[in-house]
Amino acid sequence: MDEYVGKICPYCKTEIKEGEDVKVCPECGIPHHAACWEENKGCTMHLLRSTIARFYFSAKLLARSSQTLSATRTSFLSGCRKMTATALRMA
Question: What per-residue confidence (pLDDT) applies to 17?
Answer without folding.
Answer: 96
